[in-house]
């Protein structure tokens, strides 16, 4: 069971299904533009479900910040670093219902996750704060992490490391596109349960899954 949080148009879910054909995917994507393309990509699929919501630490209505590059849209407001490094600016806002994953899961009778993937533009920690029970179930988490603040109040790499360690999930691998020998701004990180998880029989191909997280 995979939870794809910040599913966008489904690129990562398609990769996950190619690598793990028997996986069931519960995908979460709040932006209507992305939802439509996601559904087209999975037309006829019976083991992939799209949930048109955002997840966070509270059940509330928040402001969603849509950027001129829609992939960078977030529940957090982009700052000057976003504009300078990526040319991203806010284009519009709209109110968005946000749900705690631990409340939403039993309401929809979703199975417990084995793998949680997050790519929600700096809001990853808030999503995980609303999912302690799901984290206790997960064998692994794949998350986009930042080392520079691109959104107001966003979490950084060390925030996720500290939070996930409380649930027995530790850094297992960095994504294949992580730069070496120069400043790392963002990358994908695989967190795995237990210090020796990467050597277990349930090993996940971190390089392939991290390529499009």
Please tell me the CATH architecture by its name.
3-Layer(aba) Sandwich
Fill in the CATH topology. Rossmann fold
Which outline best applies? globular
Widest sheet: strand order?
A: 3-2-1-7-8-10-9
The gyration radius over C-alpha positions equals 16 Å
Helix content: 25-40%
Beta-strand level of the residues, as a percent range? Answer: 25-35%
The largest sheet, given as strand count, sense and whether it forms a barrel, is:
7 strands, mixed
Number of helices: 8
Unreliable residue stretches? 197-204
Pairing-aware structural class of the strands and helices?
alpha/beta
CATH H-level superfamily: Vaccinia Virus protein VP39
> What are the secondary-structure elements, in order, as H or E?
EHEHEEEHEHEHHEHEEH
The N- to C-terminal Cα distance equals: 17 Å
- The residue-averaged pLDDT reads 92
Please report the first level of CATH classification, the CATH class. Answer: Alpha Beta
Q: Please, how many domains?
A: 1
Describe it.
The chain is of the alpha/beta class. The protein has one domain (2-210): Vaccinia Virus protein VP39 (Rossmann fold, 3-Layer(aba) Sandwich). Helix content is 28%, strand content 28%. The chain contains 8 helices and 10 strands. The chain has helices at 11-19, 32-41, 80-86, 101-107, 124-129, 132-137, 157-165, 206-210, and strands at residues 2-5, 25-28, 48-51, 54-56, 60-67, 90-100, 115-118, 140-146, 169-174, 186-193. The strands form 2 sheets. Strands 3-2-1-7-8-10-9 form a 7-stranded mixed sheet. Strands 4-6-5 form a 3-stranded mixed sheet. The longest helix has 10 residues, at 32-41. The radius of gyration is 16 Å and the shape is globular.
């Amino acid at each position: 069971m995979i939870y794809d949080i910040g599913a966008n148009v489904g690129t990562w879910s398609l990769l996950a299904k190619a690598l793990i054909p028997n996986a069931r995917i519960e995908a979460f994507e709040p932006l209507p533009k992305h939802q439509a393309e996601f559904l087209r990509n999975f037309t006829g699929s019976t083991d992939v479900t799209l949930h048109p919501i955002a997840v966070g630490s509270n059940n509330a209505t928040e402001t969603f910040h849509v950027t001129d590059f829609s992939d960078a849209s977030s529940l957090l407001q982009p700052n000057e670093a976003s504009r300078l490094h990526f040319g991203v600016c806010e284009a519009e806002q709209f109110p968005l219902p946000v749900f705690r994953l631990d409340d939403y899961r039993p309401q929809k009778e979703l199975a417990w996750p084995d793998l949680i993937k997050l790519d929600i533009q700096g809001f990853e920690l808030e999503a995980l704060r609303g999912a302690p029970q799901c984290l206790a179930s997960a064998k692994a988490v794949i998350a986009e992490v930042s080392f520079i603040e691109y959104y107001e109040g966003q979490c950084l790499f060390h925030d996720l490391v500290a939070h996930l360690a409380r649930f027995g999930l530790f850094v297992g691998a960095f994504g294949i596109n992580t730069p070496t020998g120069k400043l790392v701004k963002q990358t994908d990180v695989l967190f795995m349960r237990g210090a020796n998880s990467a050597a277990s029989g349930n090993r996940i191909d971190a390089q392939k899954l991290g390529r499009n997280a």
